[in-house]
Amino acid sequence: MGRAGISKKQVFEAAGALTDEGVSATVQAVRQRIGSGSFSTISAHLADWKAEHAGQVPANIPDMPEKVTLAFAQVWAVAGSVRDTCNLLSLRKSRQELCGNLNRHRSQRLGYVLIQNIPSKSENMPTHVRT
What we know:
Elements: H1 8-20, H2 27-34, H3 39-52, H4 66-116, H5 121-124
Helix pairs in contact: 1-2, 1-3, 2-3
């Protein structure tokens, strides 16, 4: 008779215990904690556990030191500045494209107006040249 496989509950309990200890819940770590199990079965159950626990911060993570918090705040400020600069450059590019389109439209319109206002040949010639 074949041996029984590991359960989803076993994987969830092992992953939770590992996380509480500050250890990353990997397939290998869960397998070592349980003592057996196929990698494919553990991987499938662990994926479900991670999906359920996505975004949760483990309870045993210490607070960040003030220097790290300040450094991160500076990095975040620079990132915001870079984002603003990129937005500004994008707006400038859009403005340049719009101005180019407007100038092309004006040139086309001006050409049309000039063509419409060209006098006929006889109107343009001096009276002594007209035939």
